[in-house]
Write a structure and sequence with these properties.
The protein is of the alpha/beta class. The chain has two domains: 10-327, ABC transporter type 1, transmembrane domain (ABC transporter transmembrane region fold), CATH 1.20.1560; 349-586, Rossmann fold, CATH 3.40.50. The chain is built from 19 helices and ten strands. It has helices at 10-21, 25-58, 63-114, 118-123, 126-168, 170-217, 219-224, 228-280, 286-303, 306-327, 388-395, 418-423, 439-444, 452-461, 465-468, 488-502, 518-532, 567-572, 576-586; strands at 349-358, 362-372, 377-381, 403-408, 411-412, 425-428, 506-510, 536-540, 552-557, 560-565. The strands form two sheets. It has a six-stranded mixed β-sheet with strand order 6-7-8-3-9-10. Helix 2 (25-58) packs antiparallel against helix 3 (63-114) and helix 2 packs parallel to helix 5. The longest helix has 53 residues, at 228-280. The two termini are 56 Å apart.
Length: 590
């Protein structure tokens, strides 16, 4: 696997496209076969035209001449039909081949992106990632079109025209080959020059997509503050950069087209001038001139697109590059080779000399030790940034520890599969994020095979039925993107219902009641107590009133356990916990 810091090359992008396409080798073979057949038929047509003009030049218009003319005409029609049929079969096959490959690219990209770590998604805009996936699949479509409908025919036509000219007069073929080499070298060099602007345009397109997605996701915040003008200005700036980059890209390609036109005028005039001179000397016939002209028309028709083809090819590579960067970026958290499903029966958790740093610079935990007994209920309290939530994220293995081990029932979680580990732990987060799906689907996400009755029972126990029964569509109500149609407390209760459905042996409550008003909190306290029965429970809390009945409370400061004990024991100590309790129980600190 390539290191994430290594620059992605054109070969990397082409290899990624080929990896997606090679599953359909039969389709590729069929496409290549009929492209070659159709293009060869196009090349043969000038020979019939030569034969036709030679007949008209050397024969008087008699019945015998017409008898010779008819087979030539029928031959031309037959060749054109072969060309027509070849391109139709090619197009029909392409119409089935490309959507398959594009779907595979998007599915594989989707799968690989979801395998990235928690930190990866914290560092990337969701909208920008979606845009990169779409651009890569469309980039393959453009690249395949250029190869199938332009590059392969160009190669065949140039070779065929060169052979034809050489058979008529070698000097013409030599001039044509020299001109073709100059034309292709210029286009390759010019396209490399132009692709720099294309890459810049692609990067700015992703940036503009990210800014737009960020603003749309936070549309309510923009209205609250109100910051419409600031956000519009921010988007306008990046969009103006994108506009200038697009214009710069198009201008460079227009210069290429202009030079192409001059080169074509030069070879057309040059070869026709030499051909006429040879005709006057009796070296070439009228049919030869017709052959030369029709061959040049065919070649020009193909070569005129070569600059555009190079542009589209480099566009495709530029569009695919950003996504391939992510596909070549190793997953930060991966299942080890031979990883096995974890077997959690008792639910004992042990942090053993754990050290963890964010970005290898900011140390959060150092030689951290903690043993949580089976079915024990503990709470983590302390100031913000002390490491409480980090402890739970390490338990879920959203990050890998730098040193030490985390054990569940004596099993190192680093050696277990991530899916089995997370399947053994339920989480009720501080800010639940829901899918834009129905309430039934969102609650069932805790366990996909849960029945409708199990979902409804979990909703009742989490007191979700209080608001669900009032909705017109009940459990069939769509909750909106990220659950925006529900209040914070309603989203939290849905998250609790989801955890009830999952019923894992280990439960993590990360400020599980922080978004609830006092009445709602009272409603679900019984549900939470029932949910915690016979489970190992870790509660992260700032509201100390919610953790008074925990078996043990740990005060986390600076990534270490500063104090621990029951609520009453910690109150008797004049430490951080007593200060926090006095603030919350007695009012604001002076």
């Amino acid at each position: 696997m390539q290191n994430a810091k290594t620059s992605t090359t054109t070969i990397d992008v082409l290899r990624a496209y080929w990896h997606a396409a090679r599953r359909y080798k039969k389709s590729i073979f069929l496409i290549l076969t009929f492209v070659i057949v159709a293009t060869l038929a196009d090349i043969i047509q000038p020979w019939f035209l030569k034969k036709l003009f030679d007949l008209l030049e050397t024969n008087a218009p008699t019945a015998a001449t017409i008898a010779i003319f008819v087979p030539v005409l029928l031959g031309m029609i037959g060749i054109r039909m072969v060309s027509w049929l070849g391109w139709r079969v090619t197009t029909i096959t392409v119409n089935r081949f490309q959507p398959h490959v594009m779907a595979d690219i998007e599915e594989n990209s989707f799968k690989y992106l979801l395998g990235h770590s928690f930190q990866f998604f914290a560092n990337h805009f969701g909208g920008s990632l979606v845009r990169k996936v779409g651009r890569m699949s469309r980039g393959f479509e453009r690249l395949a079109d250029e190869i199938i409908f332009r590059l392969i025919p160009i190669v065949i036509v140039v070779i065929g025209a060169t052979v034809g000219l050489y058979l008529q007069y070698p000097l013409l073929a030599i001039l044509f080959v020299a001109w073709t080499a100059l034309f292709l070298v210029f286009n390759y060099w010019a396209s490399r020059w132009a692709v720099k602007a294309d890459i810049e345009r692609a990067a700015l397109d992703s940036e503009a997509g990210g800014v737009m997605a960020d603003a749309i996701t936070n549309a309510v915040t923009i209205k609250l503050f109100p910051a419409f003008n600031e956000e519009e200005s921010r988007f306008r700036k990046v969009n103006q950069k994108l506009r200038l980059a697009q214009t710069r890209s198009w201008d460079r390609h227009e210069i290429i087209f202009a030079v192409q036109g001059l080169l074509m005028i030069a070879i057309d005039v040059g070869l026709m001038y030499i051909g006429v001179l040879f005709w006057l000397q009796g070296i070439l016939t009228i049919g030869d001139l017709a052959f030369i002209q029709s061959s040049l028309v065919l070649v020009f028709h193909k070569l005129w697109e070569v600059g555009r083809s190079f542009r589209h090819i480099f566009d495709s590579i530029a569009d695919g590059k950003e996504m391939v960067d992510l596909l070549l970026e190793p997953h930060e958290v991966r299942d080890r080779r031979g990883a096995k499903a974890i077997d959690v029966e008792k639910g004992e958790i042990e942090f053993k000399e754990v050290t963890f740093c964010f970005h290898k610079t900011r140390k959060v935990l150092e030689n951290f030790d903690l043993i949580i007994k089976p079915k024990e209920k503990i709470a983590l309290v302390g100031p913000s940034g002390a490491g409480k939530t980090t402890i739970t994220k390490l338990l879920f293995r959203f990050y890998d520890v730098d040193e030490g081990k985390i054990l569940i029932d004596g099993q190192d979680i680093a050696k277990a599969t991530q899916d089995s580990l997370r399947d053994s732990i339920s989480l009720v987060p501080q800010e639940p994020i829901l899918f834009h799906r129905t309430l039934m689907e969102n609650i069932r996400y805790g366990r996909q095979d849960a029945t409708d009755e199990e979902v409804r029972d979990a909703a009742r126990r989490a007191r979700c039925d209080v608001f669900i029964d009032e909705l017109p569509d009940g459990y069939g109500t769509y909750v909106g993107e990220r659950g925006v149609k529900l209040s914070g407390g309603e989203r939290q209760r849905v998250a609790i219902a989801r955890a009830i459905v999952k019923n894992a042996p280990i439960l993590v409550l990360d400020e599980a009641t922080s978004s609830l008003d006092s009445e709602s909190e009272r409603l679900i306290q019984d549900a939470l107590h029932e949910l915690m029965q016979d489970k190992t429970v870790i509660v992260v809390a700032h509201r100390l009133s919610t953790i008074m009945e925990m078996d043990r409370i740990l005060v986390i400061e600076g990534g270490t356990i500063a104090a621990q004990g029951t609520h009453r024991e910690l109150l008797r100590k004049k430490g951080t916990y007593r200060k926090l309790w006095d603030i919350q129980a007695g009012g604001f600190a002076e």
